[in-house]
Amino acid sequence: MRQHPQDPTSPAAAPETQPGQLWTELGSRLLRLLTQCRVRWWKRLLIGTFIRHFSIPLDEAAQPDAEAYPDFNAFFTRALRPGARPLAAAPALLCPVDGRLVTSGQAGVEGLLAVKGQPFTWSGVCTREPGTGPAGSTSPAGFFDPTALFFNLYLAPENYHRVHLPAAGTLRRAEWIPGRFASVRPARLRRNPDLYLENERIILEFDTHHGPLLLVLVAARLVGGIETVWCPPRTTRRNHDPAFHLKLQSAVGRSWGRGQEIARFNFGSTVILLVPGSLWSPCDRTDRVRLGQALAWPSPVSSLTRRAHLCTPRGA
């Protein structure tokens, strides 16, 4: 008998938590309790230690007074002051985060080079496993023509942890894919590139003036969920959470401006940005990137224009 795809919010569609994930799940819960604790001496200890260890520049924060944050998590996901990250001139494709550009380049629908030449498939990154997603949940159309341009961005704990939209657009698709919370540090990823397929992630697809744009927000170890500006983070680690899934999809059809905040992480993680390769021309590769710098320009673009805007972070 032929098996039909099941609704992702149904209990049968949700993968069960594996025994090997128990310590990771407990660690995430414990960290969430500790980082949201509002006992004054404890949150002072956490915030002060973090500032000293990572040399956090408080002058970039919208609230530079460390004492003003109610708990460590509020400090960790702090907003930036206006002007702290100038946006590259339009119509450049903006970097959505502060972090490290682990890899970038052209990708075919059958796969891409993740790290050190190790491939994984877009169908796994952008969709659920076969038979567990809705009928229309396939590899994103319009990106691979014949190739897509991708940027794989890693956020370390010391980075700014909010995600901004690289180009003005309207949300066309929002999907939550439950999974693990394993570390996505580049060194770990070199050993197991399939982490992108195994970890929890949120898929956000936008229609923009320069074609479709896809953001894949990948959870990591000790991340207590991914939060969008319209949908608070999950409060349970269960893989079956229909209320969260419906809330996430409630913003489909809503529009955001270029550079506006759309999401945030509660710990270091990864953002994968995907745009049609025929519509964008990438800037010269840099390892460290900052929110608002140019990652690409609409094609065709003259070398004079690219040199004029430098395609590098301002003030770097």
Explain what you see.
- The chain is α+β, with helices and mostly antiparallel strands and 316 residues long.
- The protein has two domains: 22-76, no CATH class; 93-309, no CATH class.
- Helices cover 20% and strands 26% of the residues.
- The strands form four sheets. Strands 11-7-8-9-13-5-2-15 form an eight-stranded antiparallel beta sheet. The protein has a three-stranded antiparallel beta sheet with strand order 1-16-14, with no helix packed on it.
- The radius of gyration is 19 Å and the shape is globular.
Low-confidence parts: 1-17, 130-138, 302-310, 312-316
Biggest sheet: strands side by side, in what order? 11-7-8-9-13-5-2-15
Structural class, judged by helices and strands?
Answer: alpha+beta
Helix fraction, binned, reads 10-25%
Strand percent estimate: 25-35%
Computed Rg: 19 Å
Distance between the termini: 61 Å
Main beta sheet strand tally, sense and closure = 8 strands, antiparallel
User: H/E element string?
Assistant: HHHEEEEHEEEHHEEEHEEEEEEH
Number of helices: 8
Averaged pLDDT, please? 77
* Shape field: globular
Number of strands: 16
Count of structural domains: 2
